[in-house]
Specification:
Blueprint lengths: L8 H4 L2 H4 L4 E4 L2 E4 L7 H10 L6 E4 L1 H22 L5 E6 L6 H10 L5 E5 L2 H10 L5 E4 L5 H12 L3 E6 L2 H14 L5 E5 L24 H13 L6 E5 L10 H19 L7 E3 L21 H19 L5 E4 L3 H4 L3 E10 L17 H12 L5 H20 L5 H22 L5 H9 L2 E5 L3 H4 L1 H6 L5 E3 L9 E6 L8 E2 L8 E2 L10 E4 L6 H4 L10 E7 L5 E7 L4 H7 L4 H14 L5 H15 L14
Parallel strand pairs: 3-19, 4-5, 4-11, 5-6, 6-7, 7-8, 8-9, 9-10, 10-11, 13-15
Antiparallel strand pairs: 1-2, 3-12, 12-13, 12-18, 14-18, 15-16, 15-17, 19-20
Helix pairs in contact: 4-5, 4-11, 6-7, 7-8, 8-9, 10-11, 13-14, 13-15, 14-15, 21-22
The chain binds pyridoxal-5'-phosphate.
Pyridoxal-5'-phosphate binds next to helix 12.
């Protein structure tokens, strides 16, 4: 509720809360706080001038690199602070974002770090092998069959530093068999431990006793016996856990680290001399909130790294074992900020309440005339009083209509004038919002129709209620006054981000017939792209990578246009030639189409088939 009283646009949209210093508001636009500081508006305009309408997914590889470097530098800082002798290494879990536009630049930019990839399936393992710089870590989690384990052996033969994490005893048995069949090098072996600490957060099914993954204490002992028996104890190099994504509290992680640290010490005492690393999985949270007091996490990266290093130091000391290499698999934290979704607003649905639609008569009923006078003379001083008068008059006028004393035109004028007065009053009273204004804001929301699909681009909003920071790309020197609900263009009623008075979104009153208005959705780089679904056959938005050179100049690269309609249908295994043939036949046979029109209609349909399915037409003339 604060935000309507605020005038600083960076505060209204909470950039200080979620922005991680990646963006800045200047000259009324959101700029990228890097290099020559281009605005998102300017980049969007350039893309549109090149014919890419519809929604855009803009990638900023420098932001993914920045997150990785933050992770490393904070662990290095904490190690120094606590005098910790173990190393720090990390991998990016591919399931968070497998797209080439993300993965390839990430691996290129981090070659100087002990940074590699984590794979959870055969496809991801092949990607990890292709793109992890040789010698940098690869970890393999998730359920594995013999074939996946063989691929792991091949990767080790190719020179990769690969660790196969065992999720169950049967996987260890498969490794033992493959070692007998394929000989050395045997990949390193990790053991996923089943914590008694439960997972947390809306994604948490990864930790705890009922977790899908990991070895119980008895199974750990059994695994040690098997390794010893087959002379593979020296391959055991890591223990691993993952307590769930987007940890909003740090305490479960601390408990998990205590548990894991003690298991590490016990296994080393049992002769696991090459056991050097504790892999604490992912879960490092991203701030998605744009409102004060609604934070997504109760810790900072400083606190996170300090806690991990301090606890492991303490346990190692008390147990008299060497300090382990700390290994993380943070995905969301690395990927989220790198992508921004830009979506054009197509229409505002209460635009009908504008001055130009008034149908005032020569002689209006006195109360309507009075409404008009209130509207034209309202000021900051009298706004509250006039607002009350207007609401009273509306009640009376609606009663007069029900009794047959005024006509439909009078009623229409009443509605319009009252809305106009409310709009003006909201602007004037913004400095001291009251409970009453709050209720009115809730009542007079504006619906913004936005050219994108929530199911395709923000699936976690649909599936989990995860919100993402959103703000307009320009006009930020003006205060937004409209309480906004966002509608996507799917025909599904779930395709809506409703106005919520506790986490309000205010947008500008724009006339989209005359001017463009774009919304940016931030922190959409983790999970959303791969989880996105083609509900209503909307495909991924057109994407582009924004790269900065040494001089800080930027280029727009790797433009990948949204799939056209025929390609989407082809992906669903439709025979697209059959579709074209059927359409052609129907046009040829149709009795309502004249002969000289057939070719033109066919041409027009073919054109639509070769375009993507997002909406292109905006009301104003774009030529
Ligand atoms: C999903 C997953 C991760 C990544 O979690 P984030 O919350 O994205 O950091 C890491 N490790 C494992 C085993 C996972 O399943």
């Amino acid at each position: 509720m604060e935000s309507i009283g605020l005038s600083d646009p960076a505060k209204i949209y909470g950039i200080d809360i979620w922005g991680e210093n990646n963006f800045i508001v200047e000259d009324g636009v959101v700029k990228i706080k890097h290099g020559c500081r281009p605005s998102l508006f300017e980049i969007t305009k350039k893309m549109r001038e090149n014919g890419f309408k519809g929604p855009l997914l803009l990638r900023f590889p420098h932001l993914a690199e920045k997150s990785v470097r933050r992770l490393f530098s904070h662990f290095e800082r904490a190690k120094k602070e606590f005098g910790y002798s173990g190393k720090f290494k990390a991998v990016f879990p591919l399931k968070v974002n497998q797209l080439p536009g993300f993965v390839i630049p990430l691996m290129e930019a981090t070659q100087d770090l002990d940074y590699g990839l984590e794979a959870g399936s055969k496809g991801e393992l092949i990607l990890a092998m292709a793109y992890t710089n040789i010698g940098k870590p690869i970890t393999v989690n998730g359920f594995k069959d013999r074939e996946m384990i063989s691929i792991g052996f091949l990767a080790a033969k190719m020179g990769h530093n690969i660790t196969l994490t065992i999720e169950g005893i049967n996987e260890l048995e498969l490794i033992i068999k493959e070692a007998a069949r394929l000989g050395t090098p045997v990949p390193k072996i990790g053991l996923r431990i089943r914590l008694h600490t439960g997972g947390i957060g809306i994604w948490a099914k990864s930790g705890g006793y009922s977790s899908k993954f990991g070895l119980t204490s008895t199974e750990l002992l059994e695994a040690m016996d098997l390794l010893k028996k087959h002379g593979l104890t020296d391959r055991l190099s890591m223990i691993h856990f993952h307590i769930g994504s987007q940890m909003n509290h740090i305490s479960p992680l601390k408990k998990a680290i205590r548990e894991a640290g003690n298991i590490y010490a016990e296994l080393r005492k049992m002769g696991a001399d090459n056991l050097r690393a504790i892999n604490i999985g992912g879960g490092l949270a991203v701030e998605y909130s744009q409102h004060e007091g609604r934070s997504s996490r109760n810790y900072t990266i400083e606190e996170f790294t300090n806690d991990v290093v301090f606890l492991l130091k303490e346990i190692s000391e008390s147990k008299g074992v060497r300090e382990p290499t700390i290994f993380t698999e943070s995905g969301r934290f690395v990927a989220a900020a790198h992508a921004v979704l830009v979506a054009p607003v197509l229409e505002l649905f209460s635009q009908e309440y504008s001055e130009k639609i008034l149908r005032l008569k020569e002689q209006n009923p006195p109360l309507v005339q009075e409404l008009y006078d209130l509207y034209t003379t309202i000021t900051a001083k009298n706004a509250r009083e006039y607002l009350h008068d207007a609401l009273d008059h509306m009640e009376s006028l609606l009663t007069l209509f029900d009794l047959g004393y005024i006509d439909l035109t009078d009623r229409a004028n009443t509605e319009t004038l009252v809305h106009l007065i409310i709009k003006k009053a909201l602007v004037l009273l913004r400095e001291k919002p009251s409970k009453e204004i709050r209720d009115i804001l809730d009542r007079v929301q504006e619906h913004y129709l936005v050219n994108f699909s929530i199911f395709q681009s923000l699936p976690d909003y649909w599936g989990l209620g995860q919100t993402f920071p959103v703000m307009p790309l320009d006009r930020l020197q003006k205060r937004p006054t409209r309480s906004a609900s966002l509608w996507d263009i799917t025909c599904d009623s779930d395709g809506e981000i409703a106005f919520d008075i506790d986490t309000p979104l205010y947008l500008h009153d724009v006339d989209v017939e005359r001017e463009e208005y774009f919304l940016g959705f931030f922190n959409v780089g983790a999970y959303q792209e791969v989880l996105g679904m083609r509900h209503n056959l909307f495909t991924h938005p057109t994407e582009a990578t924004i790269r900065f050179d040494e001089n800080g100049e930027y280029t727009i690269e790797n433009i990948l246009e949204a799939q056209n309609i025929l390609d989407v249908l082809d992906d669903f295994d439709y025979d697209t030639r059959e579709i074209e043939r059927r359409i052609r036949e129907q046009i040829e046979k149709s009795a309502t189409i004249k002969d000289d029109e057939r070719k033109e209609i066919l041409g027009e349909l073919y054109l639509y088939l070769s375009e993507n399915g997002y909406l292109r037409t905006i009301n104003f003339d774009e030529s």
